[in-house]
Design goal:
Strand order of the largest sheet of chain A: 3-2-9-5-6-7-8-4
Number of helices of chain A: 15
Number of domains of chain A: 2
Low-confidence stretches of chain A: 1-22
Largest interface: A-B, 35 and 34 residues
Mean pLDDT of chain A: 94
Oligomer: homodimer
Shape of chain A: elongated
Helix content of chain A: 25-40%
Radius of gyration of chain A: 24 Å
Distance between the termini of chain A: 43 Å
Strand content of chain A: 15-25%
Chain lengths: ~475, ~475
């Protein structure tokens, strides 16, 4: 039987030589014993509260940890201590330097026709208003595109209000459609002569807690202050505009740049037993915005990947490859830690086998996506079987990177995606409401299980997990 | 047949003479025609958006309207104008004078062991802290009763934190169990030498929007500043205390008294066609707290009772008694309008047939409660039949007054209660989140229908609706 099978095997190998960019030995799937180990770790993780305990520690003992604040440093120290306390084989930090920004006062009120307070927050990176604020007529656009089309004479000297409401979706697709108003609203408004911009928060909730988030200026375009209104406040302005009376508001922001700061990516490893130089990456970002305690963004990602690695370590299994947990610095203000990591490790890229970041809250993982060549598909079949019992279905083979993996992905590293139910994520994202009470410990444990399956299986598998050619940059 | 029936009728009358405290003609039930009219108005109300439109107008064009602020006056003017616009037969206002209070700055932060901001709001009536705030050790009590039992030496010089969490209930029963910490916490803490008190908000939500509400000082007890933390902030403090390290906080309140102010109860009537001097009362309170726009507390009560009377008027039915809608001034800071109304009308009490106030949000009415003698029970049977089709069941015959009916109830007036589903009411109550988007227009329309049934039936019935003897004060 084996003899007769030989020509067929050769044919398959020949096909692989054509279809794959690598000439390697056929990868070995995980053994029954190894799969049993994965199942054991998975089950332990499902029943463990460790992820929640780590998250509770971070959000309580550090709390808000905006990049460049004293709590940024506290968070780095917390992470080093926590990795050590958990018994990681190797713990270190790598410097990340960036320009910082602070918030300051932020107030707004309707001056006419119906005087009342508004709840706003400065967008990250915004300049301040003059002391005492700006009072000006408000002009309403239903969408950023309407602003772009507007006659500048209508906008000049006014404050621009963009009222587009983000859609709620499971996979977060609504965010992409809405976020340009935040990132580029100030530039587009300034181009038309506006003196300020106030957008409806990029968020799906109905609470008077505005959503912050990074915005950008553009060289050569005057920098005007930019803020977000809570959803109920935006609703209120729309209603006020419906009365067809001139609307004017006053708003004041004390936001400003605050100098250069050096923080750190914090890294912990479970060192591989056979190929320690080959690393499987997972992690989240350690910084948060200042308004909340960063429980879902991204304390959850930090805590659940730390817990997943720790539970693998505790299981007694010796992963062949190294499992590296990276807690990136300053994701929120421009992937600063991610870029620093990629720069520092660009010569070791071939040893970075694959990466997965958790940065979409603490909702259950419902689907996984791979990005591998045909030769690794039998292994993905194995993963499918390991994920199925915890409610995770197989998705597509076009996985994209989490934000902090963008630089490594750009350099050619493959990525893996554990898609979470983010239906409620944008209720909390970048608001004061991003606090521990919003996290379901059971859902978090399922995430820990998912990342333990991902990282252990990737570490045990000997395939190179290279990206399909057409997806490589 | 009539002759033979006579002795039986006499027997029934004799029984009534014994069981009832009034010797009057047997009340006449509503005729079939009158019941049809009630059904028509009810159906119109269920399909009308008028209540929501009035509420939208009040919350948009006036917005927050705390007693004593310029918006208090705007609200009074709005109400007079709205009653007139709606075509009420008679519209007037009655003066109400009270001492006022303003909020000012309110900030709080944990100083040790884990520095971070807290979200607080001053309780209504609180004194200010010194400029720059108070920094002191924080002492945690799980309940007001624990504070009462505490050794003063443990409390002296500290800020008291009471973390009791209000329970969510349909009928609001959780409020009564929790609210003493708000109303008397400052007095109890000051008795033990505390320098300030911070309570967990009396509310059921999980958002970082603290709940204000009135508090009281006591003669002879030093007045200390009092504030409420949002639920997530209180959770955070409890977690911080669980680390068994000394906790200290700083908080600053700029709250202070702001002099005497005269506002008005605003009253609109549909004048009775047969007994115009007899009035059936309904209404809500016109003031709100300053943090939100008072949509559920109590814009809803204002709007839905105005709408109910207006729809009766529009139906063409001429109610026999007068239907009087009262929009009371300054309920929040001590039933000031209600007391003024009762004082001004105490000599007309016999003509105040019955009252019902809507002051529990905009949730659906699920039950009604009466407070009548046996002779009026056949009429209550008629009401039961009219309420049933809109999902309102018959409750008990021990109705209590809404807050603004307490003074009239105290003078002996009967009351009627339309019990609302308040499951979500204390998520919003006295917070910035009390905004129009929280109101379901369909549920509000059902309330309008309920109050139209109540007021029209009470106006058409000729029974005196006196209270049972044992319930009279």
């Amino acid at each position: 039987m084996q003899v007769f099978a030989l020509p067929k095997t050769l044919a398959v190998s020949a096909a692989l030589l054509i279809s794959s960019s690598y000439v390697i030995a056929q990868p070995k799937l995980l053994t029954e014993k190894e799969l049993k180990q994965v199942e054991t770790v998975r089950q332990t993780a499902m029943n463990s509260n460790l992820g929640y305990e780590i998250l509770e520690s971070l959000t309580t003992e550090v709390g808000p940890r905006m990049a460049g604040t004293p709590q940024d440093t506290l968070a780095v120290n917390w992470a080093v201590d926590k990795f050590k306390e958990l018994g990681f084989d190797k713990v270190w930090k790598e410097p990340v330097t960036y320009d910082t920004w602070v918030r300051g006062v932020e107030t707004a009120e309707v001056i006419a026709p119906y005087p009342q307070q508004l709840h706003i927050t400065a967008l990250g990176g915004s300049v301040s208003t003059p002391d005492g604020g700006i009072t000006a007529p408000l002009i309403h656009f239903a969408h950023l595109d309407d602003l772009k089309k507007a006659d500048p004479s209508m906008v000049k000297g006014k404050i621009v209000f963009i009222s587009y409401r983000m859609e709620r979706t499971k996979n977060g697709a609504g965010y992409g459609k809405a976020v340009a108003a935040r990132s580029t609203g100030a530039v587009e408004a300034a181009k038309k002569g506006a003196v300020g911009v106030i957008i409806r928060s990029i968020g799906t909730d109905t609470h008077r807690l505005p959503h912050t988030g990074i915005m950008r200026y553009q060289d050569g375009i005057i920098q005007i202050p930019a803020a977000a209104l809570s959803n109920p406040d935006a609703d209120q302005l729309v209603r006020i505009f419906s009365r067809n009376k001139p609307v004017s508001i006053k708003f004041e922001l004390g936001a400003k740049p605050a100098g250069e700061f050096t923080s750190h990516n914090v890294i912990g490893e479970i060192t591989g037993s056979q190929s320690p130089e080959e690393v499987v990456i997972m992690g989240g970002h350690l910084d948060s915005w200042d308004l909340g305690t960063g429980a879902v963004d991204d304390g959850a990602g930090v805590a659940l990947t730390m817990a997943a690695a720790k539970l693998i370590k505790d299981s007694g299994v010796k992963p062949k490859r190294t499992i590296r947990v990276i807690l990136w610095a300053n994701e929120e203000q421009g992937l600063k830690g991610a870029r620093a990591y990629a720069e520092a490790h660009k010569h070791e890229l071939a040893q970075h086998i694959i990466g997965a970041e958790s940065d979409f809250g603490a909702g259950r993982v419902y689907e996984f996506h791979s990005l591998v060549t045909e030769k690794d598909m039998p292994f993905i079949d194995q993963m499918e079987a390991m994920f199925a019992p915890i409610g995770i279905k197989r998705g597509h083979n076009k996985a994209g990177p989490g934000p902090d993996l963008i630089p490594l992905y750009g350099l050619g590293m493959s990525v893996f995606r554990l898609a979470q139910d983010g239906s409620d994520y944008f209720d909390l994202h970048h608001t004061a409401d991003d606090t521990l009470d919003k996290v379901d410990p059971k859902a978090l444990a399922q995430n820990v299980a998912a990342y333990s399956v991902y990282s252990l299986m990737m570490a045990q598998y000997n395939g190179d997990l290279a990206r399909p050619k057409q997806d490589k940059k």
